[in-house]
Every structure is written in C-alpha cells, then in structure tokens.
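Q: What would this chain look like folded?
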Amino acid sequence: MYAILALIACLGVSLAAQCCVPPQWTSQASFLTTVVRNGKPYYNRGTLLMAYDAVRHRIGQYEHVELNSAANTLDIGVLLDFTANRKWVINSKTGKCYTMPLNRKLDDFIGCVSENATLVGSQDSVGFAPNVLRLNTYSMDGPGLREYASFTSDACVPVGDTVRGTIDGSECSPLLRELSAFDWFRV
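A: My prediction, written as structure tokens:
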C-alpha cells in the first residue's frame, strides 16, 4: 500500500517537473483582495501587465493597485534581469527608479513548475465546447501560503493563479510575444 502511494507521489512530482512555460509570453491579469482591519473590510484591487522572456532572461511587470478601498493608488513597474543580476523598480507616479541587486543566479531563472509541486487537478477545463481549454492545476507551498497555478495541459501556458495565506510585507513578484512588451519600462 505504501509503495503504491509513494509511486503516485513520485508520478505527481514527475508530471509537475515536465510542465515548462513557453520561452516568451505576455499576460494581463487582475486581482481583488479583502483585508479586515479593526473589524472593517477594505478591498485592494489592481491590474497586472506581465512579460516573460526566457531568451534574454528577463521578467517584467507593471502593476496598478488601488489600496484601502481606493483611498490610495500605486503604479509600479518591475524589471528583473537575471543576466545582469539586477532589479529595477519604478514608481510611475513619482518617477523615482530604484536599482538593486537581484541576488539570483542565472540558474535560478526557471520557467517550469517546481519539482515539489503537487498535481491536484488534471481534468480541469475552461470554456464551452468546442472551445474548451484543458488545464492541469498544481499546488505549491511557500512560507505562510499555498499557491494553486493552472496551465494548459497540452502546452503548459499559464492560465490562472490563486494564492491563499498571509504574506508579511510586500514584494513585487513578476511574470512576450515581442520585445515591445518591455517598452513601458525604460532603464
């Protein structure tokens, strides 16, 4: 019995390691979260523009965020360049740009689902016949949170991502059809 469970667990890890995203892609996403502070709920919402370039080892993200039920807004651009080992963060409202070490090796630039991910859904689908997208969904754990990420089952194209848990602090986290996807960010 334990051998069968171990075999199933190894198969799940093996399947997760085989899912690698295309070398270049862009994406748009939105999010909505609720924070309860002193018994009062506040929403945070925003939109993301993402560009992933495995050829040049760069990840870019532009994010517009409304915080505290739109009392405050934030427009931030982030560029991670694994070849230069640099991270640039620009606040579009103030025009301030911050440059800092990325503290990552080129080997850290991986476009594949983590080997410790668990395949939790292989029969997921989005859409209606005949335009149905078949998805594989993986569960990955991090400090204080769990992430569920869905990719197309045939080409491993990222489709959706849900993060549940508590994140202390805030760090921009990124995700190309063409290089012009980086035009919004001039370094």
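The CA atoms of residues 56 and 77 lie 18 Å apart.
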